[in-house]
Amino acid sequence: MLGVSIKKTVESITKKESSPTTVHEPKNNYGAKPKEEIAVENNRSYTLADLRYLWREYATQLPQKEKATSGRMMGMELELIDSTHFLVKADNELVKSTMKKHKKAIEKHLRQGLKNDLVSMDIQIRESSEPTRAYSKNEQYKMMCQRNASLLKMKEAFALELE
Fold first, then answer.
1. Are the C-beta atoms of 70 and 95 separated by less than 8 Å?
2. How far is the CA of 84 from the CAs of 14, 49, 52, 149, 160, in angstroms?
3. What are the Cα distances from residue 16, in Å, to 7, 12, 40?
4. What's the rounded Cα separation, in Å, for the pair 51 and 115?
5. What three-state secondary structure class fits 123?
6. 117 with 84: CB under 8 angstroms?
7. Is the domain defined by 48-125 classed in CATH 3.40.720.10?
8. Does 88 or 132 have the greater pLDDT score?
9. How far is CA 81 from CA 44, 119, 125, 139, in A?
């Protein structure tokens, strides 16, 4: 019979597995870890129509709880600034903050769809084209005086007071 012991073989395997291993990371001349460089692989040009198509595609893919955001995105105005930047015009500050929350996901979706790693989005509040509405009598009077200065002269001539 041969003198082979299983106990010694198992012990030698567990010692090899439990021995600490060292991992050597490459370092530059100054002892610091090298910084990762951003590699630009995709830089295809795109049109405003391509951008709008992918914008709407992203909006339709939002979950049901984001239905309001999806609807707002469908009505937003997009504008190309240059080959890598575009501008989104939000209706108000609340919509702007909502879009800031989605900015990274939107940019990721657009970068993949447009095959351009440099696409970036800027958000701006749209200037209101609607005139302000006058609700109280004082507001209505002030707006009427702005339109017609003779109304103010008539008030002063007859010493009228607004109630």
1. no
2. 56, 15, 14, 50, 61
3. 15, 6, 43
4. 11
5. strand
6. no
7. no
8. 88
9. 16, 11, 16, 39
Residues in the chain: 163
* Angle (deg, nearest 10), helices 93-114 and 67-75: 80
pLDDT 10s digits, 81-99 = 988 899 999 988 999 999 9
The pLDDT tens digits of the residues spanning 60-74 come to 999 999 999 999 999
Domain map (residue ranges) of the chain: 48-125, 131-163
AA identity, residue 11: E
DSSP 32: S
Is residue 136 predicted with pLDDT exceeding 70?
Answer: yes
Residue 51 banded pLDDT, cuts 50, 70, 90: very high
Q: How many Cβ atoms from other residues are within 10 Å of residue 98's Cβ?
A: 17
CA distances from 162 to 27, 76, 137, 143 (A): 80, 42, 8, 14
